[in-house]
Specification:
This protein is mainly α and about 250 residues long. It has a single domain, classed as Ferritin, core subunit, four-helix bundle (Ferritin, Up-down Bundle). About 65% of the residues lie in helices and about 0% in strands. The protein contains ten helices and no strands. The model has no long low-confidence stretch (mean pLDDT about 95).
Length: about 250
């Protein structure tokens, strides 16, 4: 059971870390200074969640590895993040579509984890739930503004939804975590609630989900797109160029 829980914790930590780095890439490139600050703060929230998850992963693993090891010293094949979060930022509408899909799933996940039998994860969930509620308010607000805005903003928002929808299934319930769920270590399934919540957001934005879009998966099992390795190279470069360095 410890191995299964470790894998679950790494999936959540990797998800938060990779998305945090993607959002950090918007700093000084966002549509406004205010949005620069908003995306930076969301990125930092996710990074904070990552640190707690990686620290706990080190405790579960029991091999003396810390948060820096999990972030900087694993190659792409060792990461277990869903494919959605490693996809390129694209334009602002693509980033917002990605956030809406992610944030709905993340909020449902953390809400369910407040009842986890795992004390550490339950405590983290209580904090992360509040942070993620703000993230979702931010992303859904923007998607409605874009979808219900000009013809151009609507076109770009729909294009973002269409492009990223095939990567959404990995945000939901993993098919190899049934034992963790039955043991009460992870929360109740979120797939139905996620589809309902996303459908409501898309309706408010005047957008629609693609019909019969084929799903792409593999990230949570270590099979990634061509986009993760360059992202990790950028993120890990300093640590690997100066191993053991401290400020």
């Amino acid at each position: 059971m410890t191995t299964e829980l470790l894998n679950h914790v790494l999936r959540q930590g990797d998800r938060a870390l990779v998305l945090s780095h993607r959002l950090a890439q918007w700093i000084t490139h966002a549509p406004s200074l205010e949005e620069d600050m908003a995306l930076a703060n969301i990125s930092l929230d996710l990074l904070g969640q990552t640190r707690h998850l990686y620290t706990y992963a080190g405790e579960l693993e029991g091999e003396g590895n810390d948060e820096d090891y999990f972030a900087y010293w694993r190659d792409a094949a060792a990461f277990r993040n869903p494919l959605l979060v490693e996809q390129p930022n694209g334009d602002f509408a693509v980033t917002i579509a990605r956030q809406v899909f992610h944030d709905h799933a993340a909020l449902l996940y953390w809400e369910s984890m407040t009842e986890s039998a795992d004390v550490t994860l339950g405590a983290l969930a209580a904090r992360a739930r509040n942070e993620t509620a703000f993230h979702l308010q931010h992303s859904t607000g923007w998607l409605v503004r874009l979808g219900d805005g000009t013809d151009e903003s609507h076109r770009r928002a729909q294009a973002g939804v269409d492009a990223l929808w095939p990567y959404t299934s990995e945000l939901l319930d993993a098919d190899d975590e049934g034992e963790l769920r039955s043991s009460g270590l992870i929360g109740k399934p979120i797939e139905t609630a996620w589809h309902e919540a996303v459908a409501d957001t898309l309706l408010n934005a005047g957008l629609h989900a693609p019909i019969d879009a084929e799903q792409c998966a593999g990230g949570i099992h270590g099979v990634h797109s061509e986009h993760l390795e360059p992202l990790l190279h950028e993120m890990q470069h300093l640590a690997r160029a100066h191993p053991g360095a401290s400020w």
